[in-house]
Amino acid sequence: MVIDRIFRFLGLIIFAIIGWEIGIIFTGASNPVLDLAAMKYVGPLTLVGAIIGWIVAPWLTTRPAKFAIRVVRQIPIEEVIAGSIGLVLGLMVAALVAIPLAQLPAPFGPILPFIASIVFGYLGAMILVLRQDDLIRLFKKMRPRPKEAEREEAAPEAASPIPKGPHPLLLDTSVIIDGRILDVAKTGFLPGPLLAPRFILAELQYIADSSDALRRARGRRGLQVLDDLQHLDSPRLEIIDLDAPDVREVDEKLMVLAREYGIGIVTNDYNLNRVAALQGVNVLNLNDLANAVKAIYLPGERLRLRIIQEGKEMDQGVGYLEDGTMVVVENGRAYIGREIDLIVTKVLQTSAGRMIFATPEEIYHRQTH
Fold first, then answer.
1. Which fold has domain 163-291?
2. What is the mean pLDDT of the chain?
3. Which has the minimum average pLDDT: 121-135, 159-173, 270-284?
4. Which stretches of the chain are assigned E, i.e. beta strand?
5. What is the sign of the dihedral through the CA atoms of 31, 33, 37 and 40?
6. Superfamily of domain 295-368
7. What gap in Å lies between CA 277 and CA 146, rounded to an integer?
8. Do the Cβ atoms of 194 and 185 come closer than 8 Å?
9. DSSP letters spanning 65-95
10. Can you tell me the distance from the alpha carbon of 321 to that of 355, in angstroms, rounded to the nearest whole number?
11. DSSP assignment letter at 334
12. Domain ranges of the chain
């Protein structure tokens, strides 16, 4: 507020002077203080200029500065460094190109070097910003290896913050609360170790302490699942102290750690799965695993199923396999409540899972003969 008032007073003075000068030019008076006829115009113009200066000064000074500060703070330092290096390289190329361009006849000689500076400076900054990851990797390769790194190579187990194992995996909050990770771990398909960062435990504790009964039950189930996982001999569960203090969101913290240490994430969160895949993070989605291990039926195969309810379309019945797969039975409405033999006619894979279409065996044979 103090800075705004200072710039308002400065704007008032500057625009008042501008109004005064405009009045002098308009009236042609050399000394309007002694010329009352000129002062009738100079005075109001000076007052109008002072009012305009008071109003617009913050919009010309502090407001753009605050906006620029907010924008600059949101730009990652990697992009700033890469853009600066690219700008310098682009201007160096422009300086080399400007020498022959300056020899061209007017008007090209004076104009083209300036245009080349703008074009090559922009291209240099843009290319380096887009390829900043490659630039960072190049700097890391060129950086001399410190003695600490050599000692880490000599004793990698003591240096690495990630527990050693065939395939370390980070556990997401959703997959812990879901509980199926415990059953999958017992089968031995996850070599592990399974890693639970302390910020995941903190989130589970926060959910378990929720005032909402459902959320509280989910949080407590997640803590119980972790406790059961700790009692397994293989894969072992490790509570790790790794964190990404500059990141607030838990899912983003997991992705930062996964990228930094080259490990995978176990989840059943669809959005986290998509975002992690876009960032090149290895994701094991339990929902995909559940769909993959469901029984596969091909058209023409026979199965026996109990019809339990009506379908959406006329004469349809619906039943479910043991793994939860929905079976839509054409002409099955009359068989609701009965267990009958079916012939599979079509298998449809959707985003929600696999759906099977079938027809009662007796009707199927009548239609095909």
1. Rossmann fold (3.40.50)
2. 81
3. 159-173
4. 169-171, 194-197, 237-240, 264-267, 283-285, 302-306, 309-310, 317-320, 326-329, 339-350, 353-360
5. positive
6. Nucleic acid-binding proteins (2.40.50.140)
7. 33
8. yes
9. HHHHHHHHHHS-HHHHHHHHHHHHHHHHHHH
10. 10
11. G
12. 2-66, 77-134, 163-291, 295-368
